[in-house]
Specification:
Layout (H helix, E strand, L loop, with lengths): L4 H12 L10 H4 L13 H22 L3 E5 L8 E4 L1 H7 L1
Antiparallel strand pairs: 1-2
Helix pairs in contact: 1-3
Amino acid sequence: MTLSADARSILEHVARASEPVAMSDFFHAIHPPMFDDSVPEDDPEREAWRERQMSLYGAQIELHDAGLVEIVHPANGERPDLVTATEAGRAALA
């Protein structure tokens, strides 16, 4: 299976974790904001960054649907799903 760059990056972070993690915890590390907090909401750089963040949610779904991560602790209203990489997920990184 060919993974998107975003999906591969998320999977690498999840596979390195020593305990179940929320995939969204890595979104800012993968695509950090490259603008000042004072930039207006409609600034093109902020909008482009927001689109990249949204694409990471799609990559998260891609990983789950492909069976490359498994939900160990379902979301509970206070935190998102916590996942680990499956054997297939680790193999996909090799």
